[in-house]
Amino acid sequence: MECMPEETIFVVDDDQGVLESFDAMLGDDYCVVMLHDGMKALDLLTQRRPRLLFLDIKMPGFSGLDLLKAIRERHLAIEVVIVTALPQDKYEEMAREYGVYRYLRKPLDVDEIEGITRTVLH
């Protein structure tokens, strides 16, 4: 599939199962770029400029919050949806301070993911 920036979605999560779930949910209709590492994601984000990013918070090394902060510092126009299993409200508060589009808790709802994707990309 030829990837247009407006149809590209990044998913950054260190859990391979989550990445495979996103590919199953969205891979037939969109270009889904799946990454395990926040720092590698930042490098690619500045080159590819997707409009939508699904992002886990807890990852080794460069966390999702680190990546979110770096995106905002670089003024990249990317809608970020946090997808996490972390129950702590403090993470949600921090994410909202950085202007996330949505904050979702795992397990994921397929209809919700597809709805967010349609709203942001169309």
Strands ordered across the widest β-sheet: 2-1-3-4-5
Order of helices and strands: EHEHEHEHEH
What do we call the CATH topology?
Rossmann fold
Q: CATH-wise, what's the superfamily?
A: Response regulator
Largest sheet: 5 strands, parallel
- Low-confidence segments: none
CATH architecture: 3-Layer(aba) Sandwich
Strand content of the residues, in percent? 15-25%
Shape call: globular
> How many helical elements?
5
Alpha carbon gyration radius: 13 Å
Structural class: alpha/beta
Integer tally of domains: 1
- Helix proportion of residues, in percent? 40-55%
Average pLDDT: 91
User: What is the terminal separation in angstroms?
Assistant: 18 Å
- The first-level CATH class is given as Alpha Beta
What does the model show?
By secondary structure, the chain is α/β, with parallel strands linked by helices. It has a single domain, classed as Rossmann fold. The chain contains five helices and five strands. Strand 4, helix 4 and strand 5 form a beta-alpha-beta unit. Helix 2 packs parallel to helix 3. The model has no long low-confidence stretch (mean pLDDT 91).
